[in-house]
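Appendix B, record 7
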Amino acid sequence: MLKEMAKENATSDPKKWDSYCLHPVQAVFSPSSDLYDTFKKVIPLNLEYLASKQHEDGYWDPPWTWGQFEVEWKTAKKNWRGY
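Structure tokens (predicted):
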């Protein structure tokens, strides 16, 4: 059941990784994970993608915006970096 849920919810399509989604590396924590075989072909690509999005200071920007409350969003965005 867990494997089916992971396949359904983790996004293996690299074109969708710029949007708010569950990445394969968020479902698979190590090569010994029960879900590793399900995502082993896409995990290296996902790691490369995430490394390319990391800022020099070591954080990642959140993959969403509020679309409103722009002043408040600037503060919230800083607080969400890296989660």
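Remarks on this record: The radius of gyration is 15 Å. The longest helix spans residues 43-53.
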